[in-house]
Amino acid sequence: MPANTPSPTAEDFTTMLGMVTGGFVSQITAAFAELNIAHHLSGKPQPAAYVAEQEHADAAATYRLLRAGVTLGLVTHTAGEFAATPLLGTLLPGAPHSLGHLARAWAAPGHWQPWGAFTQVVRSGSAQVESALGCSIFEYFTKNVDEGMLFSKAVTDLSTPVIAEAVPVLDVRATRTVADLGGANGAFVLSLMAAHPHLRGSVVELPHAVPDARAEAERRGLAERFSAVEGDFFEEVPSADLYLLKFILHDWSDEENVRLLRNCRDSLTPGGRLAIVEIVLGEAADPGIGALMDLTMMTMLPGRERSLAEFDALLADAGLRRSKLTHLQAPYAVIEAQAV
Question: 264, 237 in Cβ contact below 8 A?
Fold first, then answer.
């Protein structure tokens, strides 16, 4: 070892082994979600054979999967039966703070294959999605509709607690029309509409997400005040009093974001504004989970997570200015902006 380098301890070895097996954990978690194990164990403890029977899976393999789940804290084992832990409940679709769809989406080929080239991403400084998938991730989702819909649901799961915090902080008393740009199934705008019956809302999305948005509006009883529109927000956006951009800007380069933000500025009604919900990076000495999410952007897309100063620079280049900042649960914030 180089001189003056601290020698690793046995504890360091164990910690690093946990990191090295992190890829295993992602696939194990996805299998738990795919096999609906949280549902099958929600009533009472069950033997592995019961779960296998419900999912038409191999009994021995299911037992080995559940045994690994004990190591991860997903289940416990007593007297031949496995029981759910509260942690397993985060994989139950529809549960508070559910991440079941996200577990499956991030372990699916559209994300898993590009991550296999991560070292090359770092060497080259550019995403390797096209070499891994043959197209961009959004084109891939258009061609692989089921995986695209799964990812839309995953984004909704990840967004749900953030939306719950963001809706109450937005003052929409003088707002009439709201457009959720790239809003997946419309969870953000529909939640805002439910809280404020005078609002009319819309989602502008790629074709694979539009049916899910319309179905969600029907499910919530808001279809009469809602529309889902196929569109490319880099070309144009419909006129609105308020644009919602939740987890959108981090997908794209600075140049692409400036084009999108200028389209918003040009189509805003007088006095209108944008509400940008994103991770806001902290200092390098304590970046938090935002730094990991930044590597996801680097791997999959031309985008990145940004600091507040970097968001301000984007807004200025697009003829906008930050008018309000509201911190949500770390690392998220709502950045409101208006035309200069």
Answer: yes
DSSP state of 8: P
Please provide residue 35's backbone torsions phi and psi, each rounded to the nearest 5 degrees.
Answer: -90, 5
Q: Going by C-beta distance under 8 Å and a sequence separation of 6 or more, which residues neighbour residue 61?
A: 52
Residue 111 falls in the annotated catalytic set: no
CB atoms within 10 A of CB 199: 21
- Reported pTM: 0.87
Sheet containing 332-339: give its strands across: 226-230, 200-205, 177-181, 240-246, 268-279, 332-339, 320-327
Question: Could you count the other beta carbons within 10 Å of the beta carbon of residue 270?
Answer: 6
Residue-level pLDDT at 3? 66
| Count of Cβ atoms closer than 10 Å to residue 321 Cβ | 12
The DSSP H or E segment spanning 77 is strand 75-78
The first and second tokens of residue 36, run together, are 């609906």
Spatial CB neighbours of 323, under 8 Å, sequence gap ≥ 6 = 273, 336, 337, 338
Would you put residue 69 in left (φ > 0), alpha (ψ -120 to 50) or beta? alpha
337 pairs with which residues across the strands? 274, 322
279 near 305, Cβ under 8 Å? yes
- Return d(Cα 119, Cα 136) in angstroms, integer: 19
> What is d(CA 234, CA 237) in angstroms, rounded to the nearest whole number?
8
Q: What average pLDDT values come out for the chain (340 residues) when binned by 10 residues?
A: 79 95 97 98 96 98 98 97 97 89 97 96 94 94 91 85 96 98 92 98 90 94 96 95 97 96 98 97 87 94 94 98 96 97
Check 101, 111, 208, 250 and give the catalytic one: 250
Q: Are 249 and 278 in contact (CB under 8 A)?
A: yes
Where b means 16+ CB within 10 Å and e means fewer, 207-219 reads ebbbebbbebbee
CA distance 303 to 101: 23
DSSP letter assigned to residue 304: -
Reading the block at residue 214, the tokens are 């319309």
- Other beta carbons within 10 angstroms of residue 277's beta carbon come to 23
